UniProtKB/TrEMBL annotation:
<feature type="domain" description="DNA methylase adenine-specific">
    <location>
        <begin position="155"/>
        <end position="506"/>
    </location>
</feature>
<dbReference type="InterPro" id="IPR029063">
    <property type="entry name" value="SAM-dependent_MTases_sf"/>
</dbReference>
<dbReference type="Pfam" id="PF12161">
    <property type="entry name" value="HsdM_N"/>
</dbReference>
<dbReference type="Pfam" id="PF02384">
    <property type="entry name" value="N6_Mtase"/>
</dbReference>
<keyword id="KW-0680">Restriction system</keyword>
<dbReference type="InterPro" id="IPR002052">
    <property type="entry name" value="DNA_methylase_N6_adenine_CS"/>
</dbReference>
<comment type="similarity">
    <text>Belongs to the N(4)/N(6)-methyltransferase family.</text>
</comment>
<feature type="domain" description="N6 adenine-specific DNA methyltransferase N-terminal">
    <location>
        <begin position="12"/>
        <end position="143"/>
    </location>
</feature>
<keyword id="KW-0808">Transferase</keyword>
<protein>
    <recommendedName>
        <fullName>site-specific DNA-methyltransferase (adenine-specific)</fullName>
        <ecNumber>2.1.1.72</ecNumber>
    </recommendedName>
</protein>
<keyword id="KW-0489">Methyltransferase</keyword>
<dbReference type="InterPro" id="IPR022749">
    <property type="entry name" value="D12N6_MeTrfase_N"/>
</dbReference>
<dbReference type="GO" id="GO:0008170">
    <property type="term" value="F:N-methyltransferase activity"/>
</dbReference>
<dbReference type="InterPro" id="IPR003356">
    <property type="entry name" value="DNA_methylase_A-5"/>
</dbReference>
<dbReference type="GO" id="GO:0003677">
    <property type="term" value="F:DNA binding"/>
</dbReference>
<keyword id="KW-0949">S-adenosyl-L-methionine</keyword>
<dbReference type="GO" id="GO:0009007">
    <property type="term" value="F:site-specific DNA-methyltransferase (adenine-specific) activity"/>
</dbReference>
Length: 544
């Protein structure tokens, strides 16, 4: 019986990306990004509007007598009101017209006028001469096939996933420029899985396109928590990137009212001066030299030392600490140089963070090639305001099954058990290449690192039945190190200094290995001799 060839269907988002990328033609990815993502956003809000519009039109139950064109009805349901000229069916009807770009720009403008929270957010780039109207019409048809006929929840899920995938693909296409708005997903997932933001205020003062917030909400959903238990706060200095964040969050139904933009940035114009966050998740730009340090010499945020004007790394760390609540915890990405630098007082600041502040919980050394915009080695810093042992409720990240305490109950975290220790994790050997230039962490990699941290941090509450082993040092991977030992090494925080080299079984048999190499060498000599004889015989047959 002949075997039938199995046909593998690509995921929807990959099919859409390939199709959309073909339509891009001569437009730069940085520009085309706004064309594609703007249309996806328009499709999402139109789908959500149409679904509620149909319910209002039918007027059943509580909606008897409701007016489907009353804006207040949509506001009450937290749905954007879409005027007639901006609804997706209207744009599809115009998709083959040569002035389709003008229609889309007008639709974006109309939506902003009807929805103040979107003012200045939506792209109006569709009537530009370098955008071919035929290609734009084809893209509208393409995006129109997403979640066709589905209710709002399904549309939100599918479009949100596709939007996120496109952000990542555009970031890859743009290379260094893409890294300005996009933190690779595996890094965000690792930060979120280690911090576990189940409840409270989540803050990112350099939020890019909002990926940290999206993953935080996903984390809560996946653990059957309540999305409304967390609130998000953000700031972004690049207005174009801020617009992407607002769309990315809106398409997920996440309240972005506290995601602010100003071009001065978080240091000069802190949009959330009084905020004390429960969680800070951030990937600030590495080694920034023009951060206005000279203007901020006496700033109240520099509790552990004045950062040098030529590098913002320790300014970012202290900015995060300033915004942490008394029990808050932060997970941030920094250039690896911040682990060892001693120039311009940076070594003293790091020392004070460890000794005076007792703030550093964990350092994770990351693999190379994870970031799109830089080849600078990076590490994760986890700063914990609760290391002094304040008695609080918390989570371990372990959901106890129905046969144990009760489904979906999270065990409480009480006193921090390792007040005078720092956990070092060396993850440089983890991850896999997705292309020649870029590496990412797998789901198993992320779980290995996160579980190590949680087992270390919560030794008294890790149940054997949860599948997590009690913490122990693993040579070459992790080590729990007393602060005194860190002091002996002059407060250098490079994990490799502490975790050592991995134990490897010494099964090397010299006689066997020598015999094998000798045999291989003899075989190569015989093959070379045979080739030389063949060459001599061939030359002898050549007549000059």
């Amino acid at each position: 019986m002949a075997k039938t060839k199995e046909i593998k269907t690509e995921p929807l988002e990959k099919q859409l990306w390939k199709a959309a990328d073909k339509l891009r033609k001569n437009i730069d990815a940085a520009e085309y990004k706004h064309v594609a993502l703007g249309l996806m956003f328009l499709k999402y809000i139109s789908d959500a509007f149409e679904e509620l519009h149909d319910r209002l039109d039918k007027g059943e139950g509580d909606l008897v007598g409701a007016d489907p064109e009353d804006k207040d009805e949509y506001q009450a349901e937290n749905v954007f009101f879409v005027p007639a000229e901006a609804r997706w069916p209207h744009l599809v009807a115009q998709a083959r017209q040569p002035d389709i770009g003008t229609h889309v720009d007008a639709a974006m403008d109309a939506i902003e006028k009807e929805n103040p929270s979107l003012k200045g957010v939506l792209p109006k780039v569709y009537a530009r001469q370098n955008l071919d109207p035929t290609s734009l019409g084809e893209l509208i048809d393409l995006i129109g096939n997403i979640a066709l006929g589905d209710a709002k929840a399904r549309s939100q899920d599918v479009l949100g996933h596709v939007f996120e995938y496109f952000l990542g693909e555009f970031a890859l296409a743009e290379g260094k420029q893409g890294g300005q708005f996009y933190t690779p997903r595996s890094i965000v997932e690792l930060l979120v899985n280690m911090l576990e933001p189940y409840q409270g205020r989540v803050f990112d003062p350099c939020c890019g396109s909002g990926g940290m917030f999206v993953q935080s909400e996903k984390f809560v959903e996946e653990h059957q928590g309540r999305i409304n238990d967390i609130s998000i706060y953000g700031q972004e200095s690049n207005q174009t990137t801020w617009r992407l964040a607002k769309m990315n969050l809106a398409i997920r139904g996440i309240d972005s009212s506290q995601v602010k933009w100003n071009n001065e940035g978080s240091f000069l114009n802190d949009a959330h001066k009084d905020l004390k966050a429960d969680f800070i998740i951030a990937n600030p730009p590495f080694n920034v030299s023009d951060w206005s340090g000279e203007q901020l010499r006496g700033d109240a945020r520099w509790q552990y030392g004045t950062p040098p004007p030529g590098n913002a790394n320790f300014a970012w760390l202290q900015h995060f600490i300033y915004h942490l609540s008394p029990t808050g915890i932060a997970g941030v990405v920094l250039a690896k140089g911040a682990l060892t630098s001693k120039t311009s007082g940076e070594g003293d600041i790091r020392k004070h963070l460890i000794t005076d502040g007792n703030l550093i919980d964990c350092i994770v050394n990351l693999p190379a090639k994870l970031f799109l915009n830089t080849q600078i080695p990076a590490a994760l810093w986890f700063l914990n305001r609760n290391r002094a042992g304040m008695d609080i409720g918390g989570h371990t990240g372990i959901t106890v099954g129905a046969n144990n305490v009760g489904a979906n109950n999270h065990l409480p975290l009480r006193h921090h058990p390792r007040i005078h220790e720092i956990l070092f994790i060396d993850a440089r050997n983890l991850g896999h290449l997705i292309n020649r230039r870029t590496r990412e962490l797998s789901h198993d990699d992320i779980q290995q690192i996160a579980r190590t941290y949680h087992a270390w941090r919560n030794p008294a509450v890790i149940p054997a039945q949860a599948g997590i082993q009690p913490y122990q040092d693993i040579k070459g991977f992790c080590a729990s190190v007393p602060v005194e030992r860190v002091a002996e090494l002059d407060y250098v925080l490079t994990p490799g200094r502490y975790v050592g080299l991995p134990d490897e079984e010494d099964d090397f048999n010299f006689p066997e290995r020598f015999a094998a190499l000798n045999a291989q060498f003899e075989a190569q000599l015989q093959e070379e001799a045979a080739l030389n004889r063949a060459i001599v015989e061939s030359l002898a047959r050549v007549k000059v």
